Amino acid sequence: MYLFSSFFCTFAPMEDKKTKIVFIVNPISGTRSKEGLANVIKNTLDAERFEWSIVKTQYAGHGVEIATQCADEGVDICVAVGGDGTVNEVARALVQRNTALAIVPCGSGNGLARHLCLPMSMKGSLRILNECCIRAFDYGIVNDQPFFCTCGLGFDAHVALKFAESGKRGLSTYAKMVMSEGMKYKPAEYTIQFEGKEPQTIKAFLVDVANAAQYGNNTYIAPGASIQDGVLDVVIANDLHVGARTRMLSDLFMKTLRSNKHIQLIQTPHLHIHRDEPGPFQIDGDPFISGTDFDIRIVAGGLKAVTNPKKIEDPAKPNSVVNMLSKIHI
Predict the structure, then answer these.
(1) Full-model pTM
(2) Which of the pair, 240 or 254, is modelled with greater confidence?
């Protein structure tokens, strides 16, 4: 049995029983081939400590079913092999369970894997799995659905929908779409109530609720956010003029959004958002057409996950070059 802690890594037990791992593979998700995964596992994973199997998903939502069954059967670790959608499916089946999440990132975004400082290569992520450093992390819930990186309304949901419709993946496609859509997107009105506060109605370009620092693709919506602090980072971009939009969009890629005077950053464990009409909404990068009301809260330490023992969370601190460049984009 593992003894999980939000402060210290815990490792596989030293008893004779091997740690049981199930790799949940989405064969069609992400941008990277999963061919050869079994061979890489055989050549990398410590056979004396771990026993493993591979299960492939066959339809949307299948990852949730597989991971739920694994947790029910006492599997020690479920490894999501795919993009952010696959990670979300597996992770939401493991919240408040003893089974830990691990990730072999194969998507274009890989938001949670990047936040956990996991290598982007298949072999590198399996080497981290060998270390078997498991910690407890926070997750969010929006209208009873778990999320692990971000959820949001406004511009980010609009771009997520356009990105999904384009059929193309990768950072270059995403960056081009952000820049082109950012110049013509029309802000909307939202009523937001933070825990213990009176509701406030604002007109905003974007309202994003972040558990982790980035959307994925190294685009940082909440630089410095931690998934171990028991609060959500709410990011509100005001009704921006064109120049301010250009600055904000460059800040996303430069990790400098916190220094932008047009951005409000508020930490809270719970909030409610209302808008007048249904529209796009995104959860961990997956877009939906959703309703008018969103109840969002944090669950502290509710997900056990394999992380990098040498670097637990991405601090998302800009270097001096980034700071210099951010001053140019005004």
Answers:
(1) 0.86
(2) 254
